[in-house]
Design brief:
Chain lengths: 373, 358
């Protein structure tokens, strides 16, 4: 009984939030159609959701597609989650993802005709290193000058987009191509292990989730990261170095996001255009929050949002409902999670936590005195 | 004279810097208006940030607030145009349709800000997370409706236009240039210039300003002397939403006459950086916004009129994307350089809890 109620405490609010957001989503679908198209059609919401579900889970291929789009979300969620644990808000997963993919394509194209056994690991490592470097910058800036990571990481996202566009249009542009596009990564592409496009990242990403849990809860370093995140002063008095932990955590977070970029490039697109890059970095924030920064929770949240992103394409084609619905759903899920104290009072739910308890210290260090002492 | 300049310009490195300064001086009259226009949305965002944070509420949802207002301003124009019909503008290109659309845009800003205010003041949620939620929601809902509306290829209601200054005045040295730069602008740009001064005076010279700063520094002390902390924070955050909305409306109703997906492009966040660099004061924030925007003006100017000589060769060899990234790079560098000496309000980002009556 005690165990049951503990599980209920953990999962109640996420589940309620998801259900409520589905209702809000239906209202948006019907109201928007009425506003723009002038017709009041209640069936449209049902059409949209059924297209969403069949597009993401309706067939073997659909399920594999869902797993493929969950993979970068899982790694991105771990990236944001790790930063959360250290009291940092990594909105820069998007930029780290892009730089990771860029480094992976550079190395991948370089080794496109070499044996896969050399090309693949090197390309993935390059992506991880690139992402780590892009995460190191805001970490280092915060540790040395106190510049808040929320502003610097967002700025770095835009810088990453510009670098990517310049590289794809410039030195990486394949000769003779009509529009800017890199060469194919050839032998460095990830091997397919399931279905048409289920690449090996599908296995590696969950392993990273296990490592994430091991690092945070079974190692001294993880303990120090969590302590510094909960109370930097306490960590300092205990002889830890919050500044060093800050830089290290941001670099590790960047590495995870960079790995996501490498998998997306080597396993899915296999080359890069200037429009490469989805909303992975921003979905990752929702994944980390909904998954309550726990490894298992992040896996489940990544599967949910992966399914939504996959099904959204089918929804747009079959029901004519724009795929941005997924962003609306994401925002409403988070809204209800954040508002959960109120929701619990209204719905008379007892003993459930919002799951955001251990990530409520970012705003306090805003403006930058934290970490400079 | 020319020979001397060439000689000075040919000194390695220092010559390059001098060439750059010379280019800046020569093109300043062209760069200044571009810079001011580029600074408008950033400055509105920064003023919104100042109003929120001076009362102790962190708002990173400015980006989303602006995006929502930009969309609402444009979309209401689309919906209202067939109803009210087009009419000839008198001044500033103002038509009844545009005026109502602007009103609705401001209203949407107030509404979005109310959500942020409720979550961060009453629910006492983490303010960075609530701001992020607003950004995701704004991105989603504007993108969703924009995609739906694009199917019908809608006609917008146009945009505000700059004030036409008398012909003769432009020929007067300095004064003419000042008038052309500051007054030959749209109504929202001119509102910004007024708002910066008004806010600067009110924040440091009025009762509201004193109370706002007190609540941002030490809410408990403020409450003890009878200031309603919760109500003041609500008022400030919601009013600030209207200010951010003006920045959004500027993008879709003055700078352009259309809406594009995610058209704010991080300006709300650059505005936050401007607020920090400007030390949470309206004038300082406006100055920082001008600094960040000047990179954009410079980038455009270099694309149109490339500088001559060695400097031109170097700048010409850079990829065009370098100038796209420049505002963001400068923001990071200035922020990292300044932030250590820029101290936020003490209670910034800390939700206020009334002491239980005992």
């Amino acid at each position: 009984m005690a165990a049951l109620s503990r599980i209920w405490g953990v999962v109640a609010m996420p589940i309620i939030s998801i259900l409520l957001s589905v209702i809000v989503g239906s209202l948006v679908i019907v109201a928007a159609e009425w506003l723009v198209g002038g017709t009041l059609e209640f069936g449209l919401a049902i059409d949209a959701y059924s297209a969403l579900i069949s597009g993401s889970l309706g067939s073997f291929n659909a399920v594999v597609n869902t797993l493929v789009s969950s993979t970068p979300l899982l790694l991105g969620g771990l990236s944001v989650g790790l930063a959360f644990k250290a009291g940092l808000f990594n909105i820069g997963a998007q930029g780290q993802f892009l730089i990771g993919a860029l480094c992976a394509v550079i190395v991948g194209v370089w080794f496109r005709e070499s044996p896969s056994i050399i090309g693949i690991p090197l390309s993935i490592l390059a992506g991880m290193a690139g992402g780590a470097a892009w995460g190191f910058i805001p970490g280092f800036l915060k540790a040395t000058s106190g510049a808040h990571e929320v502003v610097t990481t967002i700025m770095l996202n835009f810088v990453a987009i510009a670098i990517l566009a310049a590289m794809v249009a410039g030195p990486l542009d394949a000769p003779g191509s009509p529009s800017p596009i890199t060469l194919d990564v050839g032998n460095a592409a990830l091997p397919v292990i399931i279905g048409r496009n289920g690449h090996i990242g599908l296995i590696i990403a969950p392993i990273m989730a296990v490592l994430y849990g091991f690092l945070l809860y079974r190692t001294t370093l993880g303990f120090e990261i969590r302590t510094a995140g909960a109370n930097a002063d306490a960590a300092r008095y205990a002889g830890m170095s919050p500044r060093f932990l800050l830089v290290l955590t941001m670099s590790l977070a960047g590495m995870l996001a960079g790995m996501a970029g490498a998998f997306e490039l080597l396993g899915v697109t296999k080359n890069m255009t200037a429009s490469f890059g989805t909303t992975v970095g921003f979905d990752a924030i929702a994944v980390a929050l909904l998954g309550r920064t726990s490894p298992f929770g992040i896996v489940l949240a990544a599967l949910l949002f992966g399914a939504l992103r996959t099904g959204a394409a089918a929804m747009q084609i079959q029901a004519g409902v724009p795929r941005e619905l997924v962003d609306v759903l994401q925002a409403t899920i988070l809204f209800f999670l954040v508002a959960s104290p109120v929701i619990q009072r209204v719905l008379r739910i007892r003993g459930a936590g919002s799951g955001l308890e251990d990530s409520t210290a970012f705003a306090k260090s805003y403006g930058g005195e934290a970490g400079t002492r | 004279m020319d020979g001397l300049i060439d000689l000075v310009y040919s000194i390695p490195l220092i010559g390059l810097v001098l060439q750059f300064l010379g280019y800046l001086l020569a093109t300043l009259p062209d760069i200044a208006p571009i810079t001011l226009r580029a600074a408008v949305p950033i400055a509105f965002a920064a003023l919104c940030g100042v109003m929120c944070e001076r009362s102790g509420v962190v708002n990173i949802g400015i980006e989303g607030t602006m995006l929502t207002a930009a969309f609402v301003g444009w979309a209401s124009g689309v919906f209202l145009l067939p109803v009210l019909g087009a009419s000839a503008p008198i001044v500033f290109g103002i038509t009844p349709v545009l005026l109502i659309a602007l009103g609705l845009a401001l209203l949407s800003g107030l509404l979005v800000a109310s959500v942020h205010a409720w979550l961060s003041i009453s629910v006492r949620a983490d303010q960075i997370i609530t701001g992020t939620i607003i950004n995701i929601a704004a991105f989603g809902i504007t993108g969703y409706l924009n995609t739906l509306m694009a199917k019908t290829s809608p006609t917008g209601a146009g945009s505000f236009s700059p004030l036409t200054t008398p012909e003769g005045i432009k020929d007067v040295p300095i004064l003419g240039w000042l008038v052309a730069t500051l007054l030959a602008q749209g109504p929202l740009t001119i509102s910004l210039l007024i708002l910066v001064i008004v806010l600067q005076v009110f924040l440091f010279r009025s009762r509201w300003g004193l109370r706002t700063r007190a609540v941002g520094e030490h809410p408990r002390a403020a409450e003890t002397v009878g200031i309603d902390v919760i109500r003041l924070r609500y008022r400030n955050v919601i009013a600030a939403g209207g200010v951010a909305a003006m920045g959004g409306a500027f993008l879709s109703m003055e700078a352009t006459a259309s809406f594009q997906q995610n058209m704010t492009a991080g300006r709300g966040f650059i505005g936050l950086a401007a607020m920090i660099v400007g030390r949470w004061s309206p004038l300082g924030a406006f100055g920082a916004a001008l600094l960040f925007a000047s990179t954009q003006g410079l980038g455009q100017s270099i694309k149109i009129v490339p500088p001559a000589g060695q400097l031109g060769e170097i700048l010409g060899s850079l990829p065009g994307q370098f100038f796209d990234a420049l505002p963001y790079l400068v923001t990071i560098i200035v922020l990292a350089g300044v932030v250590g000496r820029s101290i936020p309000p003490a209670a910034d980002g800390v939700p206020y809890e009334r002491e239980a009556a005992s």
